Every structure is written in structure tokens, then in C-alpha cells.
Amino acid sequence: MRNLLILLLTIFTFSTTAQKQHIVKNSRHEIKSPDKKTVFQFYQKTTAEAKTQMYYTVSFKDEPVVLESELGVLIENQLFESALGIENDPSTMWCENLDLKSFDTTTVDETWKPVYGERCVVRNNYNEMILHFSKFDEPENVHHGHAGTSYDKRRSYQMDLIVRVYNEGVAFRYHFPETSNGLFLHITGEQTSYTLPQGTMAYYERWAQGPYSYLPLKDWPDECERPLTLNLQNSLTVALLEAQMLDYSRGKFKLSEEKANTIDLTMYDKVDVITPYSTPWRVIMVAENPGELLENNDIVLNLNTPNKLENVSWIKPGKVIRSNLTTLDAKECVDFAAERNLQYVHLDAGWYGPEMKISSNATTVSPNRDLDLQEVVNYAAKKGIGVFVYINQRALYDNLDEVFGQCRKWGIKGVKFGFVQIGSNRWSVWLHKAIKKAAEYQLLVDIHDEYRPTGFSRTYPNLMTQEGIRGNEEMPDATHNTILPFTRFLAGAGDYTICYYNNRIKTTHAHQLALSVVYYSPIQFLYWYDKPSLYRGEKEIAFFDKVKTVWDDTKVLNGEIGKYITVARRSDEEWFVGAITNTERRTLEISCSFLEPGKDYKATLYYDDEGLNSRTNVNIRTENVDSTKKINFNLIDSGGVAIHFQPK
Fold first, then answer.
1. Could you give the angle at the alpha carbon of 168 between the alpha carbons of 163 and 171, nearest 5°?
2. What's the half-sphere exposure (Cβ side, CA atoms, 13 Å) at 341?
3. 71: closest CA among 85, 91, 52?
4. CB burial of residue 475 (10 Å; 0-12, 13-18, 19+)
5. Which end of the chain lies in a sparser environment, N or C, as judged by fewer CB atoms within 10 Å?
6. 451-486, pLDDT tens digit by residue?
7. What is the pLDDT of residue 587?
């Protein structure tokens, strides 16, 4: 088994080449994607204030994607310089007048196998350019500090701009090599900006669990969440994302006050760092049709460090039902889970006391609850079902070992973090340390509320999923649901909390069935506001019984943002398809060309039937199909269809 896991986690490098380049003064430095379609161009030019500034552009197939835009990090180090007896930096902008010394280029083409994911093999193929800058090169001046130690009393700095160009888009970050003068960096923001072609439209979202508005690049009410998906007049679809944000301040996007059609990166707060240090990746995805964005979202994982867990045998994806907080209710959910091929039962907020009170202790069950947690865990284990529990950050904050240790003693399999502070450098560091600590106790993690992923689940795959999504806790409409795959799900798995029987859902029941395929989450809640007693023998929930939560392959068959989407996902030889529409009726054609040619399949279709006299109005039929078949559907408003393909 260990050898198999090692095989699954091994990186296979097909080719890596590197080349050092000489600098030609005031030249432009260009790097292209492996397929030559995407071009990133860097240059410095003199501003009106007679200072050199860094700029970049991005194009795709000779079409403009990002017009001339600024690059740079804002650093205020005068106080630290004074404390060390170093002459102050007189720059207005820290990155002005940087001296480009040299640059390197590298090509990487490799594949790796994730512990779980939307596909079983991920390709990481890019061309990289690293530009090496210096600031204030001066003669060496050694100063003796504490206990006879010495350090350079120079105010010189180095900075690298690292650029990777993929077929899927562009990523860049700022890296600061280790200094010899004892200085650390007080980062106050970034100059990073994105000037888009005129007429660009944005899917604006003010907060992570907010609604979307389709807005031009003007008159935004506030900052915008990431990912930010944009429609360009040249028919390209672009998305701006953040990757590997672990010990930094969360970035969002705001409109520039000085330059039209320009989006500035804005940081939640300042950051103090010790070199060597790299900022998060700034990612620009580019696609000719919006479905390609979702198919290419592994770019975020590729920009993160490989898995650091040697033993991953305890990491088990699966489907979940939420229980009321009594022993009786929990056991009923365990029985339902065992019957319906679910893997987990979840106990939500309140089991250990009022979650908003720091005095509530998550190592004990509240005496006000008729809940014997140990009995529930033992009962579930006998039936092969795991138990998740919700714990608010207030109970976790300074008690990680104590709380996680008790969870391990009970036999809990996973913890949902609730109301986690996000944004600042302090809370970013705390959260990722908490995930690492959970791994020490072999606990899976689901983060709720405003946190949005930046790819850390590759490095610590016990981070299974996260909210940061307007899901069925808010009961959004079908139009919102057709926006999410092209926006929020570009960043990673989303815990939408799918419902089925609850009468507050604003979509059809077939739409909810289809969401289990359209939306990716290794820990997938399927009955969020439901309970076992609501089940009255409806045959169509057999689709929930059979659907998986992790996949060997994923394809977007068609889709338009805010209108409709069809997603096909493969598990071994089986395929599952989910198609949803917005609040409008439409006819969709589903091509079966994703199926293996020459093989016959049985397709079981679960669809809305307005003529059916039942609680859910979902009908079922079967068809024999192969890869040449096309299936047409008349989707009702807010409707959907779910299909299960099995080889015959």
C-alpha cells in the first residue's frame, strides 16, 4: 500500500530546460506559453517624473488581454533602516529605478498524481522567466552587532520577478532573496494592476458569500472578490485569481482611481516578512470559451507545493448528511447514510455549547444536549460511517492540540472550522497552521464562511473543501448557480451544501441532483436542510447514492456564464453528467462524444417532468447510447438533468 501511495504522489518530469540570458538595456523581455498562443511581455520605461517603472502586457493569439499595466511591491522600510544605521531609501515607490541585472528562462513539463481531485493526473507545463533586480548596490560595509556578530551595513536589496506562462494563462510573483544586512520588509501593498481592453465586463461579487452583478469597469460599489471573471469584447474570457496565499494578506480587486478600465490589486493589511520570501502568485487565466476556465483550474494547484503528508491512507473523500444534535437523530442519520451509500454524518454548531462564546469548550458535549457523542461515533463506526463535527474558531484558537486530541480520542474523522477570521497576515498564518495541526491528528478539514482556497489542499490534502460560496444556506436562484462554475469554482472545491427535500430551494429537484456533478467538493453535503424522515421512497435519489465526490477526468461539454452549463465527470469506467439552466427554459443538446469510442453504455436519466404527479416531479428513464449519440433535453426554468452512464 505504501508503495502505491508513493507512486500516486511522485512527480514525473518529462523535460526541464534552463538558460541564462544577458541584459540589453531598455529591452523588452517576452515569454510565451508552450503552445505559443499566450505572450507575457515585461519592460521598464521612464515616467513623467523621470523615474523608471515596471510594466507588463498579456496577449492571446495576438489579441490583447492585459494592456500596459504596472508591476511592483510597496515597501516602507525607512524605520527599520534607521534602526540599523542604514541610509534611508528615498524612493516614492519602492520598485522604481530597479536595476535589472540578469534573467533566466526555464521550461517545465511534468505530470503529478493528486491524492484526489477533478482528474487523476495533472499536467504542469509552463515556460518560466525570472528577472533579477537590485536596488542600491553599494560597497560592502560590515557592522558589528550584538555579541560580536556582523552584518552588512548596506542598504542594497534584491528582488526577483518570477513569471510562468502556461497554455492556461499567466502567473507571476515577487521574490526577495535573503538579505545580508538584517533588514526585514514592511510590505504595505502592491502596485500590481490589470488594464483591460475597453468594453470589458466583470462578474462582480463584493464578498465571498455574496451575489453576483454583471458590471462594466466603472462605478463599482466596493472591492471585488477573487476569482474575478471578465468578458472581453474580443470574445475571450479571463479570470484573475490568487494562488499560494499562506502567510500574506488576502488580495481583492478594486477599480483604479487614476486610470480607466484598470483594476488594482488591493491587500487587506500590511505584512512584515523575513527574507527569503515570496509573495502569492497573481494568476491571469485566459480562455476562448468560458468552460475552458473550469477545465483548466488545476493551474492553481500547480502553483502550490506538492503534498507533504507521507501517509494519506486516512484521507477519505465522501458524501455527508447533517444531523440534528441528539443521539437518536444522529443514529437515524447513520442508518440513512449506510443505506444510501453516504460516508459521513455531520454534527453542526451547538453540540458543545454556544459557538460564539469563548467559554464554550469543544472537548466536552454540552449538558443541555441529549447527545452521547462517543455512542454516536461508535455506532457509526460499526456501520462504516465517519463523523464530522463543527467547531467555531473561538474554541479552536488557542486550543488546537487539546481540541484535536479529544476529537481523535472520540474517533471523529473531520472538523468543520466555523467563522474563521480571514484577510490579515496573522489569520492567514493561523489558519494554515491549524490545517497542518489537524493533519497531525489525522483529521479532515472543511472551512466554512468567508475563506476562499488558493491551492493549499495540494500541500495538505486533509483540507478537503471550504465554503466561501453563496450556497443553499442562502438559497440562491438558478441563475446564481450557473455563474458559480465559471467564478468561485475556478479557485477550488466549494461546499455548497446541496439540499433535496427542503421547500425553500429556488430550483427544481433535478437541478439539485445535477449540482452534485456540476459542483466539485471531495466532501459533498447532499442533504443539508433535510432529514431521513423526509424520504418517502423517491427513486431518483438513487443518483445521489451512486454519484462520486472525486474524479478521474472532468470535461465541460457546454456552457455560458449565468445561463447554463453541462459537466461530465468520470470515475473509473462510469461517467456522470450534470446539466443546469438558469431561471429560463432552454433546450440543451448533450453530445456523448466523451464516452469511449466503440463501447456501449446504459444511460440512466433523471429529469424534471411537469406532468408527473409526485412530490419532486423527477422522472427516470434509461437509454442505450454510445459515443456517437446526442441527447436533447427541454429544461424547464430553474431546472436540470442528471445522467449516469455505465458500460454494458
1. 20
2. 9
3. 52
4. middle
5. N
6. 999 999 999 999 999 999 999 999 999 999 999 999
7. 97
